[in-house]
Amino acid sequence: MENNLDMKDLLRKETSLSSELEEMLNKQSKMEATASNKYLAMASWLEVNGFLHAAEYLYKQAEEEREHFLKLFKYINEVGGVALTPSIDQVKVDYSSIREVFDTALESEITVTKSINKIVAKCRELNDFATEEFMMWYVNEQREEEANARRALELFDLIDVDGESGKFLLDKEIGHIGA
Ligand code: OFO
User: Fold this and answer.
1) Half-sphere exposure of 100 toward its Cβ, with a 13 Å CA cutoff?
2) CA of residue 94 to ligand 1 center, whole Å
3) Is the pLDDT of residue 164 over 90?
């Protein structure tokens, strides 16, 4: 990380992007890459535990988060900053239930939304309209993703998951979210 930072200072070009925002964007890109790994681990847990449709849905989410990461990464370089390749901390890989997976998913999405909102607020404070406009894509994306995560949790209230057929139905319905 230290080497990364030294390199960043050497490579920094003349740009209207403030160092403060550049740092926030790099942190956000790491958050998106981490979100991708979190979903990957959740998808794997679901797959191993027989929830194949729900697993497929979260594998797709993992891919989407990877795209969110890359989009930010490339933006930082495009506007004259230096995108830092993030090292990703170990994510949670074990869950006590499918419910815990989706509780965690919603919690993570809310944390990401708050972080994006902080970036937009900083853009406004610094009059960085280009970055604000760029980040609005993420604002909209988060609205959708939070809604999908809440929808998954609603299904737990709508379906009696105690029986085997309940689990089967729940898995199928979660698989339809976002389709
Ligand atoms: Fe990156 O969209 Fe959610 O976290």
Assistant:
1) 10
2) 21
3) no
User: For residue 9, is it within any domain?
Assistant: no
Ligand 1 site, CB within 6 A? 32, 35, 65, 68, 109, 112, 141-142, 145
Beta carbons within 8 Å of 33's beta carbon, 6+ residues apart: 65, 66, 69, 86, 88
Q: With respect to residue 15, please indicate whether it lies within any of the assigned structural domains.
A: no
Model-level pTM? 0.91
- Best residue for ligand 1 mutational test, from 28, 68, 75, 143 (most atoms within 8 Å of Cβ): 68
Q: Is 24 inside any structural domain?
A: no
What residue numbers bound the domain in which 164 lies? 30-82+90-175
How many distinct structural domains can be found in the chain?
Answer: 1
pLDDT tens-digit readout, 96-121 = 999 999 999 999 999 999 999 999 99
CATH number at residue 77: 1.20.1260.10
102 domain-assigned? yes
